[in-house]
Amino acid sequence: MSHVKPPQILGFTRYQWLVIFAAWLGWGFDVFDALLFNFVSRLCIPSLLGVEKVDAQTSIYWTGTLTGLLLIGWATGGILFGKITDKIGRTRTLMLTMLTYALATAACAFSVNIWMLAIFRFISSLGIGGEWAAGAALVAESVPEKKRVHAGALLYTAAPAGLFLATFVTDLFTRQLTGIASNPDLSWRVVFLTGLIPASVALAIRWKVREPEGWKPAVEQPRIRELFTPQLRARTIGGICLAASALITWWSCNAFIPLICSFLVHDVVPQPGAAELALLKASFVTKGTTAFNIGGLLGTLLTIPIALHVGRRPMFIGYFLASAAAIWCTFHLGLAPETRLYSIFFIGLSVFGIFGSFTFYLPELFPTRLRGTGSGFTYNVARYLTAFGPFLVADIASHTTSSDQILGVVSWVAIVPLVGVLLLLLGIGVETRGAAQEVQVQTEKLAA
Questions:
Q1: How many degrees, rounded to 5, is the angle at CA 341 between CA 337 and CA 345?
Q2: Cβ atoms < 10 Å from Cβ of 201
Q3: Exposed, middle or buried by CB within 10 Å (0-12, 13-18, 19+), for 73?
Q4: Rounded to whole angstroms, how far apart are CA atoms 448 and 444?
Q5: What's the whole-model pTM score?
Q6: Helices (H), 310-437
Q7: What DSSP letter does each residue of 205-226 carry, written as one string?
Q8: How far apart (Å, rounded) are the C-alpha atoms in residues 172 and 165?
Q9: For burial by CB atoms within 10 Å, which of 132, 303, 318, 369 has the most?
Q10: Contact 331, 439 (CB under 8 A)
Q11: Region class of 289: left (phi > 0), else alpha (psi between -120 and 50), else beta
Q12: Where are the chain's structural domains?
């Protein structure tokens, strides 16, 4: 009896598309839940501090502090669930992480003070961090090896999609639905309640997606120290350095983009009325974050041809140089408010776009048995390092007295991707193009 191959679209079978879509939803809602706070911080911070209004410096301080806390929880969850995914499976872990961050994000709506919000955000961040390793490993092991770059980059297009959804939901409940938007304390709580959406998707994933054929439950618990054997040490360290350079840049910019966009209103309309001010701020935040998202989507897709035809290391160098230029020009140059607003597109193209590579690059560094552990460890150690970025930016910016000074502080984030370029020129980062099987063979020999 002849074997009939299942029909394919763009090199993927129908089931492989289902796996990609399931992981895509998990990552998209991951980003959606993670960033809801940044979109409503200007509303929930005064409410939870028990004051009618806070100044820009206080908003930036708490935004940076809670973002840093999120990243610490994100990293902890990533490492924890990275080991769990090698133990109990990719699909089960994906469902578990989605339920964790969905329920905890919704619980933020019931916070009565800023410390309660911080606790719920931390719990949510554990699931958010864990989802990445499970989803990336699931996709990497479910598609043909020659299609991993395409699948990985397609997976990360979920990130700008999640941001689009967060932008839409925030705009809907803080500006468009006037019955809710007229009550700021209610509007931000409703926004957090939308974080429940991923819970239903998590259950659907459990019913429809099976474990990859190449995955087997680990007989022996994967150990972190295995990532630092001679065969894997350079890959692990390189992955951490590249991920940290990209993550510090992304979070030190993106965490403050909604606030910066709202500050630009005062440069356009010096003394607006209270109602007009609220609407203008919501409008500017929507425009700025939309520009960032569109740039991020395009930049993510561009990683596919660049990684395939140029290589991983040159791709990282190009994106890091473009990130430094985009940040410096957008935040440092004396641009008109509207021009600065739309220039955020170029930050999205470079700073955001580079993340299309990590979903295929980090899994390529490790063998199947350690793929979840290795990807989770490298990406989330980088997240620990990243947590200091928003803390530092928030601390410095909270002592400034004008929006121009705040822009000046954020513009210096351009140094971070330049450090990434320097590390690459010094030899950090393994080129994995055309060498996907090398690490598998080496570690199998070591295990034998």
A1: 150
A2: 17
A3: buried
A4: 6
A5: 0.75
A6: 312-332, 337-347, 358-364, 371-386, 388-397, 403-411, 415-425
A7: HHHH-PPPTT----SS---GGG
A8: 10
A9: 132
A10: no
A11: alpha
A12: 9-211+221-447
Residues counted in the chain? 448
Structure tokens at 397: 């910016």
Cβ distance 374 to 430 under 8 Å? no
What's the token pair of residue 133?
Answer: 């390793």
Q: How do residues 303-338 score in pLDDT, each as one tens digit?
A: 989 988 999 999 999 999 999 999 999 999 988 888
- Give, for 66, the enclosing helix (H) or strand (E): helix 56-88
Distance (Å, whole) CA 144 – CA 167: 35
Q: Contact, 392 vs 285, CB < 8 A?
A: no
- Number of helices followed by number of strands (H, E) in the chain: 21, 2
Q: What is the pLDDT of residue 444?
A: 46
Q: What is the mean pLDDT of residues 398-411?
A: 73
| One-letter amino acid for residue 272 of the chain | P
Residue 40: enclosing H or E segment and its boundaries? helix 14-49
Supply the DSSP symbol for 110.
G
What are the φ/ψ torsions at residue 13 (nearest 5 degrees)?
-75, 170
**Do the beta carbons of residue 358 and residue 156 sit within 8 Å?**
yes
**Strand 8-9 and strand 12-13: pairing?**
antiparallel
For 231, the token pair is: 């065969």
Q: Using CA atoms, how far apart are residues 213 and 141, in angstroms rounded to an integer?
A: 8
In terms of Cα–Cα distance, which of 310, 277, 29 is closest to 175? 277
Structure tokens at 47: 């409410």
**Max CA separation in the chain (angstroms):** 79
* CATH number for the domain whose boundaries are 9-211+221-447: 1.20.1250.20
pLDDT in tens, 181-219: 788 889 999 999 998 888 777 777 767 777 777 666 655
